[in-house]
Design goal:
- This protein has 80 residues and is mainly alpha-helical.
- Helix content is 71%, strand content 8%.
- The protein has a single domain, classed as Arc Repressor Mutant, subunit A.
- The longest helix has 21 residues, at 33-53.
Length: 80
């Protein structure tokens, strides 16, 4: 768990340096206004990209692709 905590702390530090997080009174962190604006822009970009990727692909086909990729990743992890 220590490695996970270190990785999370690193990400938090990076986001704080960018001005996307702020520390609140109890010591927790939350998105700053700039962080919220950036999140909104990124979310819009991800949504547009997803729409382009899924053009002509049904929900069922998308589900099947994700399921296959998950099995392939599990195969690699089990051979790890």
């Amino acid at each position: 768990m220590g490695e996970d905590t270190a990785a999370i702390d690193c990400v938090i530090d990076d986001l704080a340096r960018l001005g996307w997080l702020r520390t609140i009174d109890n010591g927790d962190v939350e998105l700053s206004e700039e962080g919220r604006a950036t999140h909104s822009r990124v979310q819009g970009s991800v949504s547009a990209t997803r729409q382009r990727l899924r053009a002509g692909i049904t929900d069922e086909e998308d589900f099947q692709v994700v399921a296959i990729l998950q099995r392939m990743a599990a195969n690699l992890e089990s051979q790890g």
